[in-house]
Write a sequence for this structure.
């Protein structure tokens, strides 16, 4: 499993284990006898004041303040302390100048399919907040579903460690954020810039295609959560980015899912990936295996909808006359689309369309609104 060390991140401030800080002080005394002697050897020519050097070696200072990682790296280097040992004694870290921090961090950072899934979320329903003025850009994730929103934060914590927010705002806010110090790794790891995450320009980088099945699955599941529509016969992902749709179709081809790419003449700039029924079955089987290995990879209600669609499709309701009467009675009271009727009656959309077509031919119902792709019908 690929691992990333903390010094790969940008502008990291840390807190150290107090016992390890005592060891640093002891070794500095043995080597230099005085703090001033140590300072002159390590930092005199690095624009770090002597007062700052003394403070970063105090446990009282460590209790209240985060310290730039590079200061402790320089101290460790002069004492011949391996950076990996320093890393193992970091108890929390954050972006320099930031407020939210990672507590009990997972270090080194392990690059699992969950990390690749987060990358895909940052494309699917993500935005890049780029304040400029020397500040690091970071990701926001627009998600109205509370389960998926909280799962996004849990995925970040699965990779990096517990995040201590000033408040757990993401329970109510529809846009949780990935702290800048963590966001920086996604840009570095995939070799991408801010513009590469724009919805109309984003692509799946080659590094993901080179990884294998689990990462490809995790990326596909992220797009299903963020952009997917589940039908009884297919999964549909509709994006204003034809090249990205082609990338997702390539994943389907690699994983052996029967799929096709289509365009809508009414929305020429959009492209649509259709994962057909046979592909849905194999995808869901693969999902169950990956979910067992990584429980945090959870399709939630969309996974439930895929599973229930298999049950619906096997029911003997497709062309029953009684269902036509039920649909007619509903449309006398409400104006609904095929999707809404299918969900209400626990039927396939194809079954509903069959009855709608016959009711239209018999002039029992009419089209109320055809301005959208999802036409609305009424009696």
């Amino acid at each position: 499993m690929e691992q990333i060390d903390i010094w790969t991140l940008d502008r990291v401030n840390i807190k150290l284990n107090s016992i390890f800080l005592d060891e640093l002080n002891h070794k500095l005394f043995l080597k230099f006898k005085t703090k001033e002697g140590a300072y002159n050897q390590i930092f005199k020519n690095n624009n770090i004041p002597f007062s700052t050097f003394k403070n970063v070696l105090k446990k009282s200072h460590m209790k209240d303040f985060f310290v730039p990682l590079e200061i402790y790296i320089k101290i460790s280097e002069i004492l011949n302390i391996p950076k990996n040992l320093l890393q193992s004694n970091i108890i929390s870290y954050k972006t320099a100048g930031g407020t939210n921090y990672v507590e009990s961090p997972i270090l080194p950072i392990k690059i699992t399919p969950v990390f690749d899934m987060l990358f895909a979320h940052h494309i699917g329903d993500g935005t890049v907040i780029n304040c400029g003025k020397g500040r690091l850009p970071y990701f926001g994730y627009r998600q109205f579903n509370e389960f998926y929103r909280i799962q996004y934060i849990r995925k970040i914590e699965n990779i990096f460690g517990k995040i201590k927010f000033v408040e757990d705002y993401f329970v109510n806010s529809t846009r949780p954020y990935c702290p800048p110090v963590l966001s920086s790794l996604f840009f570095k790891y995939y070799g991408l810039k801010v513009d590469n995450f724009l919805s109309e320009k984003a692509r799946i980088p080659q590094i993901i295609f080179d990884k294998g099945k689990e990462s490809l699955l995790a990326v596909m599941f992220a797009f299903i959560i963020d952009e997917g529509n589940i039908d009884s016969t297919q999964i549909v992902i509709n994006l204003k980015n034809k090249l990205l749709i082609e990338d997702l179709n390539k994943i389907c081809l690699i994983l052996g899912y029967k799929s096709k790419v289509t365009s809508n003449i009414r929305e020429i700039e959009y492209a649509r990936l259709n994962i057909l029924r046979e592909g849905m079955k194999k995808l869901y089987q693969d999902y169950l295996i990956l979910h067992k290995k990584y429980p945090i990879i959870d399709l939630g209600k969309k996974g439930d909808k895929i599973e229930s669609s298999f049950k619906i499709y096997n029911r003997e309701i497709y062309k029953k006359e009684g269902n036509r009467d039920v649909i007619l009675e509903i449309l006398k009271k409400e104006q609904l689309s095929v999707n809404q009727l299918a969900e209400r009656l626990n039927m396939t959309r194809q079954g509903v369309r069959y009855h709608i077509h016959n009711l239209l031919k018999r002039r029992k119902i009419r089209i109320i609104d055809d301005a959208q792709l999802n036409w609305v019908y009424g009696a």
